[in-house]
Amino acid sequence: MTDAVARDPTQVTEVATGPAPAGSSRSWTEIGTEIGDRVYTWSIAGFASLVPILLLLIFVAVGVAAWPALRAFGLSFLTSSDWDPVAGHFGAAPAIYGTIVSSILALVVATPLALGVAVFLSEFAPSWLRGPVAFAVDLLAAVPSVIYGLWGIFILIPFLREYLMPFLRDTLHLGVLPLFTGPAYGSSMLAAGLILAIMCLPYISAVTREVLLAVPRSQREAALALGATRWEVIRDAVIPYARSGIIGGIILGLGRALGETMAVTMLIGNRHEISASLFAPGYTMASLIANEFSEATGDMHLAALMAVGFVLLLVTFLVNAIARWLVWQTARER
Amino acid sequence: MAATNGWAGAPSGRQRAVAERTERTIRRRRLRSSVMIGLMYVAAAVAILPLLLIVIHLIRLGGSSVNLAFFTHMQRSPGESGGGMANAIVGTLILIGIASAVGLPVGIGAGLYLAEKRTTLLATTVRFLADVLNGLPSIVMGIFAWELLVKPVRHFSALAGGIALGAMMIPMVTRTTEEMVRLVPISLREAALALGYSRWRTSLSIVLRTALGGIVTGALVAMARIAGETAPLLFTALGNQFWSTSLRAPIAALPLQIFNYAISAYDEWHAQAWAGALVLVGIVFVISLAARVATRQRYGAGD
Amino acid sequence: MKPLSLVFAAAIVVAGCAGSADKAQKDSASGAAPATATSAGGGALTGAGATFPYPIYSKWFTDYAAKTGVKINYQPIGSGGGIRQLQEQTVDFGASDAPMSDDEMSKAKGGPVQHIPTVLGAVCITYNVPEITQPLKLTGDLIADIFLGKVTKWNDSRIAALNKGVALPNRDLVVVHRSDGSGTSYIFTDYLSAVSPAWKTSPGKGKDVSWPAGLGAKGNDGVTGQVKQTPGAIGYVELAYARQNKLPVASLRNAAGQFIAPSIDAVTAAAAGAASKFPPSSDYRVSIVNAPGAQAYPISSFTWILLYKTQPNAEKGKQLLDFLKWALHDGEQTAGSLDYAPLPTPLIARLDSTLATIKVGATP
Question: Per-residue pLDDT averaged across A53-61, rounded?
Fold first, then answer.
């Protein structure tokens, strides 16, 4: 049934109904059907077109607002770390770096957990447990960002500062790696990455779970008949069938990670500095905008913030393009 | 046992060695299976842990403030007892309603288009751009909505807030709808068409209904997200200290109120903020439950 | 399809009921184009801006609505946001912790803008050093050097010189500043620029500056939390946060040479000292850091309500002016209950006459 996902389902229609035989008049029912089909197709195409229209509007609006800053600073906006609203210098490099690093960290942590939950729910959980647990994980998406931030400040950061960071750096001796050096303040890239992972989790897990549940039982039965262990069934029969859906879920989670503002800004330390260590404070583009927009009044300051938004749009574009390319590669290999 | 392995006669030394190796391999594979399955259980537990911790935290800090007054009274100054978030609760419900009315039809419609016309230029473009739109910080959406919906008419409104939230729902609902509709086996569609259903009725009555469970999941997750969003509302719905349900006036909302209270200096307001968060999660919980019950059917589209 | 359509129908019904219930309840929309009349039974105004005075303003508006039925909705979207909304006339009044610049005022679409100071705030220096049990004394230039990163240890000789008899530990000084733009930062950097030429050159004063040293925390509550959790930390917070959280605060040397601890009276004294020096034509866009006066606390500041000097809508203009008169007399009495310092009485008298100059019901 794998070619089911490859063929365009609407092509079937041409085969099924076919053109009316020559010479016969068409009944009202047929005309009505055709009108209905046409209205339907145009409606959904119309709805779909709203997406590029919306994005184009946003792109243009942000770009126009950002233009004064982009023109004034040029490429140095992307490479400079000097963000000084009073002097009028704006360089967003640390924010760009921080967005990419925190998002990657979030996905690296969230994806295995989300896959684990989804597989657990679709394969092993007894049916009475499946509903409530799935529900609970989906509910993670409802917690407001500011609450994640507050919880992070009161619970996560002390935990990191007193237990996890010393554990990683000293007990596991990972401190020799540049990733885990430096004093443990708590507010750090690591804290931001972890809270983002928790926030991405429900999206990846919800989509993966649905996709795994939709894998036909025949796939699993065939693998079992060939002597696979339960894990091998999952690894070799179920997950590959669901692969593109799973990647879709990951991209959904990535979207949340890139654009998240409030929780990150409360946990990342907000320092305009690029540091190799995950223990060091940093910045992200979204939290930079959120932090400064409400109070910014200078024209160049506002333009610079819009320029950060513009760069974020571009980075999101790029990251998604890379992800799509990866999907296309894995699809080709099959 | 020699008799059950299918070989005629007593096994030779080499046959015994092969049998043993196969046994070992099978044992190793079984062990790996058990270990991986154990890890799955651990992953599930680790994934639920933050939610449990957060909800416990919310209950501990805010539970005592969730009383009748919370649902019937409005803002009071710190130092005065009996404050509540009645207007914010109603405001959030109204905003969710408007956002869903805007975001769900567009999102589901777009998702259907992507699933049916998979390879057209519009479909590829929309799929990609929906993912990009998903990564837009909510504050940028809020600023954009302000430019379009507030500045020209020179007043804040609940409608502007709802539309901004609805616009944020669109990309999420689109992508999840597409994934779920794609999972419906093509045999179902062919069968309906063979029975004489028109294309549009097949899509809506047969395919959409089959994928409904998954679509509802996607819609609920999108709705949960926008229910907790603050930034888009700051510049559109603004927030309201007083009771207002008018669509053309500023309206209170739970995330806004929670935020204002949480960053203040006063302990009474902090407790109210936690209570508000608890109620917000509770509202999403109730809506999700109701939607699942209303659309309950055979789980998933597998055969 | 039925369940889904039920969900849509419910959403639309809720939205529709909301719209019609509004007409029934006479909770009219606020802030529409100036020609719209408000409905009977109390008016409605909309304002937005600074987060610092939000608690006292919301109390005032609740009390005022109970007294007169006029509902004034104020939301703390930030001083910058408030100024922007006023410029675009999407609100009836704005509020800001920093005065508008000439450039910003020229962009206001409704004509000239009047600044009315309402209450006073103060920025306290708070710290977390378990070994120190008495309040510390500090001076402005010392604080500037600490925040510049030049003083790094608690037992530095300059700190010791000001605090003879206090045992200072050999701990690292951890500076905590604001990561978000804020009026509090504006007041603090305004003070530092006034007392330290090095600070004035760079980073200078602003709601958002490039901090040379330390950790950034979001919001007054963030700084409070960070300082509380980090031994050796020093940071700056609004008076209300220091009092509500019972944080240790430093006494600062004011322009008269006295070491004054932050308190409501000390802040009002600063305003009185500064106001006595206002020229008759002052538009109140004045900084009062390092104010003269023996009892003045040096890091004090006004917060302002911003309104157009000419109010085109007669009814709303009158309601706004009536509220401001009430606030300056009755409202000021309750300021202290929420840790805000009231304006000094002579200044209130001046403001009354300024309010009388606002034109109502005309076009600029």
Answer: 92
Concatenating the DSSP letter of every residue in A139-162 gives HGGGS-HHHHHHHIIIIIHHHIII
What is the number of CB-based contacts under 8 A between chain A and chain C? 95
Asked if the C-beta of A206 comes within 8 angstroms of chain B's C-beta atoms, the answer is yes
Q: Which residues pair with C262 in a beta bridge?
A: none
Provide the chain C residues 226-245 that lie in CB contact (below 8 A) with chain A: 226, 229-230
Cβ–Cβ below 8 Å for A151 and B57: yes
* CATH 3.40.190.10 domain residues, chain C: 4-121+270-360, 123-263
Residue with the two structure tokens 């507050």:
A150
Query: Neighbours of A (≥3 Cβ pairs closer than 8 A)?
Result: B, C
Q: What is the CA radius of gyration of chain A?
A: 25
Domain of residue A161, residue span:
76-333
Average pLDDT over all residues of chain C = 85
Query: In this predicted model, what pLDDT tens digit does every residue of C269-300 receive, in sequence order?
Result: 999 888 888 888 888 888 889 988 899 999 99
Is residue A117 predicted with pLDDT exceeding 50?
yes
The answer regarding whether domain B68-296 maps to CATH 1.10.3720.10 reads yes
Q: What's the CATH number for C123-263?
A: 3.40.190.10
pTM of the model: 0.82
The pLDDT value given to residue C364 = 66
Where b means 16+ CB within 10 Å and e means fewer, B234-264 reads: bbbbbbbbbebbbbbbbbbbbbbbbbbbbbb
pLDDT tens track for B56-93: 888 888 888 888 888 888 888 877 777 889 999 999 99
Cβ of residue C263 closer than 8 Å to a chain A Cβ: no
Chain B residues close to C62, C-beta within 8 Å: 75-77, 241
Q: Which residue of A has its CA nearest to C207?
A: A295
Rounded to the nearest 10 degrees, the angle between the axes of helix A299-333 and helix B138-145 is 120
